[in-house]
Amino acid sequence: MIRFILSDLRRLWAGSLVVVLLVALATALGVSVVLQERALRLGSARAADKFDLVIGAGGSETQLVLSSVFLQPSPLPLMPGEVLGKLAADPRVDWAAPIGFGDSFSGYPIVGTTTMLAQNLSGDLAEGKIFAREGEAVIGSAVKLPLGGEIKPMHGLLEEGGETHTELVYHIAGRLRPTGTAWDRAILVPIQAVWHIHGMEAEEHAEDGEHKDEAASGTDSAEHGHEHEKAGADHNGHEHHGEADPDAALDESWTADAPGLPAILVKPKTIADAYKLRQDYRSGNTVAVFPGEVLTNLYATLGDAKQILVAVASGAQALVAASLVLVTVIHIGQRRRQIGALRAFGAPRGAIFGIVWLEFFFLVAIGIALGFALGYAAALILSGMLSQTSGVAMPVGFAREDAGLAAVLLAFATILAALPAVLAYRQSPAQALRA
Questions:
Q1: Least buried of 67, 106, 241, 247, by fewest C-beta within 10 Å?
Q2: 397 and 56 in contact (C-beta within 8 Å)?
Q3: Alpha carbon distance 20, 370 (integer Å)
Q4: pTM, whole model, 2 decimals?
């Protein structure tokens, strides 16, 4: 029987190939949706695990996490600099690292921060050393720049018409190890240098410093009055640049008169401290969030999108199944003489049923296996593209529940293959030979 089936498939190879490709493409669509959604969840969750607590000014918690953890460019409101001083002196805090952004170089975001964050972000450096002067920088593992290279910061992005700062040129002192986060594509510089470049001196009056603070976070707040709006416009015209000394030593002792900040990354000493700090800084002008909790809300939205995509994939698979039924019915009609001859030579009806069923099930099973391979390859390609642009590593892999999906598809193939087999089973030899 097996030899007969293989011979039959070789003779009808064109039709068999069409059946396999139809099943493979329909299966690949559903598999790629499932794998890509899972890769996005795992990748973003692992990236958020690097940061225990994020504190920012009152506003959107989601945007705070996207900007500070995933480095997505977006204007953020500023919180008073005194928050940094309080956190640095809090016995519940292991370390607190301010971050300031808004500048870039060659498409890589420049993030102002501290040596503490640079040391703890990836563990030991892959090469070089941590920045120790205002004119030094540490780059992420995915930044394609050499040690010792020059970095000329640009306000904003090149495609947005940003203007290059002339106050300071950074020199690359070290490179971080891979973290699998958006920070692999970041350029880390001293926050002190960012403040000096944008003229954000701590001793300036609050009114004059307020609009300058907005510059370091890329923010133009609509909540200020006419005078502050004019000041923010002046900065966008690059009239409020300060001076920086590339050889100046770093001073990371934070005081209450520090410039305003868009976000602070906090490492609590214990889990209990983390919850207490979040509660303490969720009132007034600040908000404190666990990145994982914010991602849970995003996952809910992502889950709705996944259901829509899965429904689309299921609809495509249903159309393919209907097409296959039509093709097989026509195919059985064309093979009536062959089936009649087999019956005339004494082949029992059960053998005819088994031959037709095995042929069709074999083709559909190969299509399902090929579809899983194609879906995996498509998810790998898409995840690679997203990882290259975002810096977040997105692991693509099969899980235990995918075996259940394969089982469901094979069960469906078992039922689908029975339809042409039943049609062949019910044909009498005389009717088939007269056709």
A1: 247
A2: no
A3: 8
A4: 0.72
